[in-house]
């Protein structure tokens, strides 16, 4: 197969073809290119002064992925004891771990505090009380609600509070003996709208002032995740986003501010390629259906929320328009519609690009279809 799309690097493509040719492993599996992850880690944060990067583990918590990222020295953002257990097994130091889930379980809080994690997000009165009890004196940062327009995977409704509440919560944390150090927000995942960060930074500055008026000197701004990747369309590149964000931050904030960044999708998404098999074809009404062995339940859950992937088949037949479906018996298990692809044969490989993030981490064994293995190349 020659290189099929400019959305995959030649070096990645060669590694993928080599792996398929030489390995005994049976598909489906997810190949993850270490060089792509390294490139991403090298670029993220580079254009934001005083920044530290904490990889959002939920995007892909595979132990080999985490081991590799750990070897590159990144920090980690976690939300649960399961995520912390994997990091602990790799010996990740607590000062490289933060937790930005604003509502945490008791068990996780206890474990995290005991492990020595010392950065916790919150956005409610009861969370302050939980933190004061389970992680007394810890560093805490409040989650501000910010616009998510232009993000393909918005997160804004579930978490975050408005300015006045956020300001009160910072004061309350201090009253409870915690150490309010900063502000966080999330512009939404797969965010294509650079202005979201600008609006968010402006809003954070207002909160910063309001905290100062209440005698609280903050020192950290956590700009969350949201950097987009190329699924089927070009997106704004990380460098462009970061230069704009950097400018917005340093026009308004003190020079010695600490910036945290929590990318998930951008670190692992483009590094992953699913290797799947065509297991069925049918014509139903006026639709051509293509059935493959990875679907909504065992890896491609985000397709239901509107993420569209790039598919590659080796066939040189005329392109047709397909409805692509997973292997389970559930009618919810439809990955994509109106996909133009040359007609493959049954048993042919079908590759899915940019599928390293929010795929395996979402997967279940529903209907007995196993979760594809993750293999680093
Ligand atoms: C999921 C999540 C991230 C990562 O978001 P991406 O869009 O994958 O970069 C970062 N921070 C928090 C708090 C999250 O919940």
Automatic annotation (TrEMBL):
InterPro entries: Ala_racemase/Decarboxylase_C (IPR009006), De-COase2_N (IPR022644), De-COase2_pyr-phos_BS (IPR022653), Orn/DAP/Arg_de-COase (IPR000183), Orn_de-COase (IPR002433), PLP-binding_barrel (IPR029066). Belongs to the Orn/Lys/Arg decarboxylase class-II family. Pathway: Amine and polyamine biosynthesis; putrescine biosynthesis via L-ornithine pathway; putrescine from L-ornithine: step 1/1. SUPFAM superfamilies: Alanine racemase C-terminal domain-like, PLP-binding barrel. Signal peptide: none annotated. One of its GO terms (cellular component) is cytoplasm. Residues 38-268 form the Orn/DAP/Arg decarboxylase 2 N-terminal domain. Its EC number is 4.1.1.17. The keyword Thylakoid does not apply. One of its GO terms (biological process) is putrescine biosynthetic process from arginine, via ornithine. Its cofactor is pyridoxal 5'-phosphate. GO terms for molecular function: ornithine decarboxylase activity. This is ornithine decarboxylase. Keywords: Lyase, Pyridoxal phosphate. PANTHER family: ARGININE/DIAMINOPIMELATE/ORNITHINE DECARBOXYLASE, ORNITHINE DECARBOXYLASE 1-RELATED. It comes from the Bacteria. It catalyses: L-ornithine + H(+) = putrescine + CO2. The active site is at residue 329. Pfam families: Orn_Arg_deC_N.
């Amino acid at each position: 197969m020659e290189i099929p799309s400019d959305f995959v690097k030649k070096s990645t493509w060669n590694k993928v073809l080599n792996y398929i040719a030489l390995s005994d492993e049976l598909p489906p599996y997810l190949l993850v290119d270490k060089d792509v992850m390294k490139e991403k880690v090298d670029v993220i944060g580079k254009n934001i002064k005083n920044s530290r990067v904490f990889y959002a583990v939920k995007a892909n918590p595979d132990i080999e992925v985490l081991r590799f990222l750990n070897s590159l020295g990144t920090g980690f953002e976690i939300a649960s004891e399961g995520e912390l257990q994997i990091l602990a097994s790799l010996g990740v130091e607590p000062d490289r771990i933060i937790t930005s889930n604003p509502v945490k379980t008791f068990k996780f809080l206890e474990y995290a505090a005991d492990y020595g994690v010392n950065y916790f997000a919150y956005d409610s009165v009861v969370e302050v009380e939980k933190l004061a009890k389970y992680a007394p004196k810890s560093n805490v940062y409040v989650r501000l609600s910010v616009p998510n327009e232009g993000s393909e995977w918005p997160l804004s409704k579930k978490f975050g509070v408005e300015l006045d509440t956020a300001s009160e919560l910072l004061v309350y944390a201090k009253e409870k003996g915690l150490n309010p150090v900063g502000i966080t927000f999330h512009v939404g995942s797969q965010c294509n709208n650079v202005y979201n960060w600008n609006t968010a930074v402006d809003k954070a500055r207002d909160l910063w002032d309001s905290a100062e008026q209440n005698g609280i000197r903050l020192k950290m701004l956590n700009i969350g995740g949201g950097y987009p990747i190329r699924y089927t369309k070009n997106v704004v590149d990380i460098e462009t986003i970061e230069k704009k964000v950097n400018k917005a931050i340093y026009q308004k904030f003190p020079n010695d501010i600490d910036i945290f960044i929590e990318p998930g999708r951008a670190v692992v998404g483009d590094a992953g390629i699913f290797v799947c098999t065509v297991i069925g074809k049918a014509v139903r009404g006026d639709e051509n259906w293509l059935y493959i062995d990875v679907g909504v339940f065992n890896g491609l859950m985000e397709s239901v929320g509107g993420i569209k992937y790039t598919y590659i088949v080796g066939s040189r037949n005329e392109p047709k328009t397909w409805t692509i479906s997973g292997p389970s018996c559930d009618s919810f298990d439809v990955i994509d519609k109106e996909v133009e692809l040359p007609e493959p044969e049954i048993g042919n490989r079908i590759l899915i690009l940019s599928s390293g993030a929010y795929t395996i981490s979402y997967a279940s064994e529903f209907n007995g279809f196993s979760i594809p293995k993750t293999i680093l190349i």
